[in-house]
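Annotators were shown the component list below and the corresponding predicted structure, then asked to write short factual statements about the assembly.
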Amino acid sequence: MNADFNIDSILARYNFDSSALIQILSDAQDKYGYLPREVLEDISQKIEVPLSKMWGVISFYALFKLKPPAKYNITVCQGTACHVSGAKRNLDYIESKLNLKAGEHSPDGKYSLETVACIGSCALAPTIVINGKVYGRNTVKTIDKLLSGLEEGEKNE
Amino acid sequence: MSEEKISIIVDGQKILCKKDDTYLSAITRAGIEIPTLCHMEELKPSGACRICVIEVEGAPNLVAACVTPVRPNAVVTTYNERIHRARQTNIELLLRSHPLNCIVCNKNGVCTLQKLAYQYVPKSRLSKLEGKKPTTDLVEVNEFFVLNYSACIRCQLCVRVTDEIQVCNVLSMQDRGFDIYPSAGFGRSFEEAGCVACGNCVEVCPVGALVSKSIKTTKSRSYELKKTVTTCTYCGVGCQLELLVDPKQNRIVDVQSHRDSINGLSLCVKGRYGWEYVHHHDRVNTPLIKKNGNFVEVSWEEAFDLIEKRFKEIISETGPDSLAFLTSAKCTNEENYLMQKLSRAAIGTNNVDHCARLCHASTVTGLVKAFGSGAMTNSVSDLTNNAEVIFIIGSNTTEAHPVIGIKIKQAVRKGKTKLIVADPRRIELADYAEIYMSQRPGSDVALINAMIKYIIDEELYDKEFIENRTEDFEKLKEKISKIDFSSLCKIANVDEEDVKKAASLYATAKTAAIVYAMGITQHTTGTDNVLSLANLAMLTGNVGKPGTGVNPLRGQNNVQGACDLGGLPDVFPGYQKVTDEKNIKKFKEFWGVDKLDDKAGLTVVEIMNEAHKGNIRGIYIMGENPVISDPNINHVREALEKVEFLVVQDLFITETAKYADVILPGQSFAEKDGTYTNTERRVQRVRKAIETDGSRLPDWKILEIMLNRFGIEKHYNSPSEIMDEIAQVTPIYGGISYKRVENGGLQWPCPSDDHPGTPILHKDKFSRGKGKFHAIDYLDPDELPDDEYPLILTTGRNLFHFHTGEMTRRVEGIHQRKPIERSEINVKDAKRLGIKTGDKVIIESRRGKLLTEVKVTDKIKEGVVFMTFHFKESAANLLTNDALDPLAKIPELKVCAVKVTKE
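Structure shown to annotators:
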């Protein structure tokens, strides 16, 4: 077990209670950015929830990630308001631009792309979320700017 | 009863309910049918399918009967237009996401969804329904079954069975919405997730999603298969199976559990998938005689003539005691009875024994001395329902007796039972234990004496029980007072605190049972080990009550029966001593012979030793394979080479049969009728399911002919008549007949036709009168590690294989899963020797050496190596020690000194 993956402080928050599984997983994901297999095995043993049962929960909620996050996680909202104002076009454009399908990670680990049913910011439709920050009223043009901004940032690093 | 007071009105009829009833349980008990897809009596209700909806007056919506507790005086309708429509809608929704390719589905005709669709959906709609496009998208394909996920109706029965029944937690439902399906998760195969291939999930699947591979080859529809209820032929649990036979091919194609039995829903991989050997092309079809070193097919007549001639020559030259008979723990009670009758009445020798000598001889000896009867005192269901504490020592229950193992796991899971496990290996049940102790192999007396000492010192013993029911307690107390607790723990190499905790948990529980197997018995101190466990049980008053007792788990399907029916050199059937004048007279009259041998005969290992010396000149072996199963194989091989005339009756040309002069083809359990007696003394039926190939005869018929050839003119029309003869002369089987054991069997002692059988022994009185304490000293094993052979070898079983592997290794799926021996060695030892998992190593003892693959693990104690004895290529018994327990004559298969070197 990697010493970095010590989960006990999170488990202690919930008294090692298996009924708090979802909160525990959520806290663990906040800590590591995703849910590493070693962490899950450790949780499984310590709160006595079989790995298969945890899998049922993890695969049910879109929230939980089993892969390390890409540097830039791009989420394209597909809710009703976004849909009618061009979400599909935006998604197609990002997919072709990054050569990536929704749900995929780019091989260099830089980008991940996903869709979400509604983020609740309908007034700003169509929206895109990049690493938790919401960008509104997107068109192909604004997207170009956003993506080249990310590339710029890369160069300056 | 007071709890029967609640009543409800169902379809205008008053029904009494229990307090914790659901509508479904109460209504179906009253004989009214409610359809379900996701419900099963053995499982907790889940309410997933909504097919069981009913109308309850006052409830705004229809309610799912399976999950709704009964309300007193509720008025319920189980079927009307509204209910029909609701069920129809749900079924149609399922049909739309289910492939409608019933014509190629194995479940066609027995599929619950198909049946309900036909019943609830109008034919005009059904014919127009478009189902899901069938895919061959298999989520799981393993050696035994496939999961075709496109056919899954998401009832989750499989998930719940792995969780609640098998307690292996392999499955959960993956994803959400329409795409949900059962999965092991994380991209794992079932095996990687811990699947033990019991196939219980396959059995409960209501549609064709989970299907046994074997059934895919059948040419008959599932409803055309012939079903035969019979007893499993592997371990001593005695699970009831339903063999499904394709009548067009005369082949077994699948196995289901017979739920109304001791195993309930559960079977293990051997029971469900281990039958392929029955149809294996290696089976012997006709009698064979060795001519010029080769086996030649001959007629039965020729084979019998030769056996008669040679045996009679030997008898006339050196007397009947130069012959010996090995009867079989795999054969039926009736066959065992005839075999010992052949030996005793027809030939005239008591040299008859079988492999019980190698497994539980010390149990029989020890428990007879302490209690007066050498069998499991309680019943399996009793252990798992009534024991507050189970102390498991020297039994890897989940692998050697899988169905008892999972019942113990269920009991622990439900919080009913606490476990104490003592085993040199960290076996699966250790994970379920309150206290796990890893004693050094061969130190059991020290460990148990330490527990006894603590219980006596702390005065945790049952004074009343000791006073009223036992004798010689003072002798034990005096002996124990002289021994030091700490040094006992040191000998056993266990933590003192653990021993104290275990002793106090065991002693203070209201009901505590001991379960043990070969880890206790296969020692030169086997009888001492058993006596010590008997001491422990009597000391705490844990005998003769539900949920208590001393419970040896018998290893083979009918090892109990083979012992019961006189397959031992010192007793007639029913443990009646051969040295007792009265018994001799009784059997002489009954069998119609002038003379019976009045001295005890030779035991298995002694037979081989005497054969080695040339004193045993002829041996008749039925269904045994001593060349793999007996200790010190090289010695056995030499002995069999020296035997002048060897007859082997078996299914295959086993390693032992290779030495035979005559091989007689036997029949497997699926081809003949009979009874087996399981570990809890339950006599259960074995029923013929298929016609035999070739000119094989049922083993009882072969023995009948042999009896006739040697002057016993008795003819049996069926095994049932043999059982009637057994009942006349064997008091403990006095009330057993085929008619009475037809459903569910009977547990002996069952002395008369109206006796209900005996689930718990020694209830008010021990079989011998008073229970007897024995003061036992710890003795070292015969062979201890030294500089030359620094490690201890201990042997055992694997879940997938059985005994000498002649049957399971001829099952394709099992062979693929476990093709070779993988011996276990501790991480630290491996590091020292430079060995890693997958390496080939040479293991050597004073008696032989072998080559084997090795698995490095921390689940075994440092200094100990573990091997199974299933594989003839690396036969563990080349190494084992044939030193004997002085009383029980059981060899020390569990401890010998070895050295390990990398190849």
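Statements collected:
1. The interface with chain B takes residues 37, 50-56, 59-60, 66 of chain A (CB under 8 Å).
2. The longest helix of chain A spans residues 140-156.
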